Amino acid sequence: MAHFAKLDSNNQVTDILVVNNSEVPDEATGITFCENNFGAGTYKQTSYNTYGNKHYIEGNTNNLSDDQTKAFRGNYADIGGYWLPAENVFQPVQPYDSWTWNSSTSTWDPPSPRPETDPEAGTYWDWDEDNQEWVQIHIVV
User: Average pLDDT, stretch 30-36?
Assistant: First the structure.
């Protein structure tokens, strides 16, 4: 399936449309299809399996695909996020006010790096915006 983001006049993503690949052999045809079927507007194709300038195996955000040439436009478009034409990437919604946009990785960076996660021990980390720090959480399975 092909995915297209609909943008408003400020390049904010307002909708994500899914179109059968047989209808859209390329982006230009896909944009025309979206305009004809979903109304006038600005549309950009987005890759469901791209995040942080990396392409992941379909349905598995933990494993990179062998073919990184498939990484497309930085990130899968996020409703409420933005299209950044100068960078040719989709910028996801900012997760916290203190996080800053990193143009080289196409990700939002926290003020301090996330500590190592230990899934076997059920130890994960969550960002505490009020205290500007990572908080350890335990998940018992």
Answer: 95
